[in-house]
Design brief:
It is a single chain. The protein has about 300 residues and is an alpha/beta fold. Helix content is about 50%, strand content about 15%. It has 14 helices and eight strands. Strands 1, 2, 3, 4, 5, 6, 7 and 8 form an eight-stranded mixed β-sheet that branches. Helix 9 links the parallel strand 5 and strand 6. Helix 1 runs antiparallel to helix 2, helix 6 packs parallel to helix 8 and helix 10 crosses helix 11.
Amino acid sequence: MIKEVLQQLEPLDAQIDALCSSIDDAEMANTTTHAAELAELSAQENMLLQRCTSLTPEDRVFLARRPDRPHIGEIIDNLFTDFFEQCGDRQCKEDAAILCGIARFHGMPVTVLGHRKGTTLEENLRCNFGMPGPEGYRKALRLMKQAEKFHRPVICIVDTSGAYCGIDAEERGQGQAIAENLYEMITLKTPIVSLLIGEGGSGGALALAVADEVWMMENSVYSVISPEGCASILWKDAKKAAEAAKALKLTASDLLSLGVIDRVIRENGKDFTGIYHTLKKRFRVSTERKLQMPVEDLVEQRYKRFRKM
C-alpha cells in the first residue's frame, strides 16, 4: 500500500516544489493564483495520505529504509551544538560507519555516537552503508568509557541493517567487539539513552542500545534479523518477507507493548522539524532526571530492565 501511495505522491511533490521555486518578488501579482494551486495540490496529497492510516509491518520496514529519513548528522545539527568528532579505535583504524563525538546539549557536555549510513553514494560507500566493523564498535566503547570518566550522558543514535559480516571483520574480532559493548554498557556508570531512527538490525544495533531508555521513531523497526533473512530461513523464500515482518513484531508499537522499548516518537509525514523539537525536550528531561540518580541505582535499574526481558 505505502509504496504505491508514495509513487503517486512523487509527481505531486515535484509540482509543489516547482511551484514554490517559481514564486518570487517579481510574481507578487500572481500570489493568489499560486496559493490556490498550492492548496489544490496539498489537498490531493492529503487525500492520498489518508489512505495510509493503517500501516502494515511491511510498510514500516519500507519507510524505515527510505533514504530521505533523518540521519545522524541531521540529528546532531538540530539537537546539539559545538559537536567535536573523535575518530579511531586506538587499535586498528577509523570506521566511518560509526560517528562519535562530544557536544553541548542545552549547555551541558554530552557524548553523542551512532550509526552513519551517509547521504550520497560516495558517503554510502565510505560508511559501508551503515554496517560497522569491529573498529567502529571499539571506537564507540572508547567514547562511552570516556563519558563514564567525566560522568557525561551518552546519547546513541541507532540506524543499521546490522554489523558488517565479512570475513575480514570476523578476523579482526567483530563478535568480540559487539559482546564487549554489551558487557560494558550494562554497567556503564553514566546515563545512556538510545534512539532508533531507521533500521535496528540484530547485534549491530543492540551494541548501541543497551541503555537506560530505548526510544523508537514511529516508522523505525528493530529486530533480530531482517524480514527477508527470516523468510529465507523459515520458508526458504525471501518473497514471504511481509509474513515474516508481521511475525517478528518489529514495529515500534509492537515493541512498546512488549516492553522492549520505552517510548515511541510520533512522526508527521516528511516534516521532521517537530520531531527535533520533541527530541530536544525529551532528551533534556531524561538526562537531567538520570543525572540526579545515585550511580549505583542507575546501573541496577538498567541491569534489571534487561534481565526482565
